[in-house]
Amino acid sequence: MNLRNFHLYLPAACLCLLLFSGANTFHSGPMQLQFTHVVNGKPMALQTGIYTNAVGDSFNITMFKYYVSNFSLTSSNGQEVSLPPAYFLVNESDTASKTITLPPIPEGIYSSISFLIGVDSIRNMSGAQTGALDPVNGMFWTWNSGYIMAKLEGLSPVSKQPNKLIEFHIGGFQGTRNTLRRVTLTFAKPFALPQAEPVVMPIVADAYTWFGQPNTVSFQHVSSCTTPGAQAMRIADNYQHMFSIKRD
Amino acid sequence: MKAVYFITFFCLLLLLAASEANNRKAAAIAVPEPYHLELPPGLPAPVYDLSQNPLTKQGIALGRHLFYDPRLSRDSSISCGFCHQQFAAFGHFDHALAHGVEGRIGTRSVPTLFNLIWQKNFMWDGGVNNLEIQPLTPLTDENEMGMDLGVLVKRLQADAGYRKMFKAAYGTEEVNSQRLFRAITQFLATMISFQSKYDSVMRKAPGVAFTPEEQEGYVIFKQKCAACHKEPFFTDYSYRNNGLPYLPNLNDVGRMRITSSTGDYLKFKVPTLRNILKSSPYMHDGRFFDIYQVFNQYAHGIKPNASPTIDPLVKNGIPLSDKEQRELYMFLNTLTDPGFIANSSFSEILIQ
């Protein structure tokens, strides 16, 4: 291009900019998290998989879902970048829900990602929500307002519940009953964003942790937890360790 | 070169004109008309954030339609308005406990509905933390409307009339639970009751004054009731154990169910006394059908050591002579807001 004549193209360039300004979303290389669910390292199979918890109780899983939200990335120089608000309900029985696309991430070199398991307290008190937070998803308590941060249901022969149910609806967002837990996962090595192709981060969530450490759960004694309180706090303390980055 | 500029300028003009025309077209289709909610002077700012759900005529109309539509219940038998009757200040006249689908009966009485935008928590135990999601509880409770929220959204989406009303209120035909709850909230937000005789006296409206008995009753109220039933809402929105004997059949532990704290055993929300003589029966379980039974409960029915959480203010009873009770009754009568109860913009509408 002859630069002397650049001003000739300027108006056309402006017009182009104007025409395309409607589509100014972040196109190059979004980051995705791809969740895989396992139980003590074995792939999770709803209904059919038979697992054993830390105390040796056998159980299966019929429902496994949880919220992740409030994402941030830490750059290799230690600076934390909070992403715009985003809420996802990851559900084992819904394949599409297990790959999530994060909000646009500013350019940088990043070494770790951090997120909340659950829905922050503000959204627990802000009234009617849509999308992943729509109460139609069955993750909102009607009698005691607030989101169920994570849900695991199944059966165990040692359960004393009707039909041998095990039922863990973990929630509570206030004071001493706050089940929100922040997870930080460090990447194998830092990488630069944006990239031409979407960056897909494979993340494993191990349901075994729910009943493992530090608060070992025996289904003979505790087969249900469906209210905010001390038991929910103990399970949340356990499941905050459920995530890891899958390494090949 | 000039030609290039000219053409560009012309193109820009065209673009502008096109987008302008688009806007106008959209306006012609559906722009909900803003509704100005007149708030009585001298009150604190509402707790409910009206800016997140700006009131519109169409939104309020949709909310009113939803409120009176029995199709919101599982078997299309019970609307919100079934239990919340306007002539009872939106309580349930003559019914101790809430009714529901298939003749089911709940464990608590139906609360009145007005001045809700100033209220922080809802239900007798304060378990619901935002006005918008309050309807979720009766809607899904198996002893009330017994409805599945997802089924309801689909039911309304399938109805041409509702699609039209949702479009009028929100610009598109989409039905979702947020739109549903916000429309009901818009209708509820307009239910404001501050036009009682008491309000006129407080405002020093010309020609309005308490009778001597009402005035005596007001003095007694301020001495013996106002600590919990605080003006101007006639409740301090706190949760208290007022000494009512526990009923094993209902086994209602009150706010303890919400907080898991034994300190909240048998505590229930202090109800407003506005429109109280229109909204019997009384107490969280509707056990008293007459206000004099309530007076007598406080005057003679309190057992100070019945429960460790009994409120210190009522622990030793509240002495009320027959004369004082009559005067108190006369004062409470001034808290009735006839304009609210007869307001035609809240009244039941025919659902086709």
UniProtKB/TrEMBL annotation, chain A:
Alphabetized UniProt keyword annotations? Signal
Superkingdom: Bacteria
Q: Which residues form the signal peptide?
A: 1-25
- Pfam families referenced in this protein's UniProt entry, alphabetically: MbnP
- Name its species: Chitinophaga rupis
Looking at the record, the residues that make up the Copper-binding protein MbnP-like domain are 29-225
Q: What is this protein called?
A: Copper-binding protein MbnP-like domain-containing protein
UniProtKB/TrEMBL annotation, chain B:
Q: Output the Gene Ontology terms for molecular function.
A: cytochrome-c peroxidase activity; electron transfer activity; heme binding; metal ion binding
Q: Describe the location of the Cytochrome c domain by residue ranges.
A: 212-336
**Residues that bind heme c 1, according to the entry?**
80, 83-84
Do you know which Gene3D superfamilies this protein is assigned to? Answer: Cytochrome c-like domain
The record lists heme c 2 as bound by: 225, 228-229
PTM annotation, UniProt = Binds 2 heme groups per subunit.
Q: How is the cofactor bound?
A: Binds 2 heme groups.
Known Pfam families for this protein?
CCP_MauG
Which prosthetic group or cofactor does it need?
heme
What is the residue range of the signal peptide feature? 1-26
Do the record's keywords include Transferase? no
InterPro entries found in the cross-reference section: Cyt_c-like_dom (IPR009056), Cyt_c-like_dom_sf (IPR036909), Cytochrome_c_Peroxidase/MauG (IPR051395), Di-haem_cyt_c_peroxidsae (IPR004852), MauG/Cytc_peroxidase (IPR026259)
| Keywords annotated in UniProt | Heme, Iron, Metal-binding, Oxidoreductase, Periplasm, Peroxidase, Signal
Q: What is this protein called?
A: Cytochrome c peroxidase
Q: What are the record's GO terms for cellular component?
A: periplasmic space
Which species is this record about?
A: Chitinophaga rupis
Q: Where in the cell is it found?
A: Periplasm
Q: Which PANTHER family match?
A: BLL6722 PROTEIN, CYTOCHROME C PEROXIDASE-RELATED
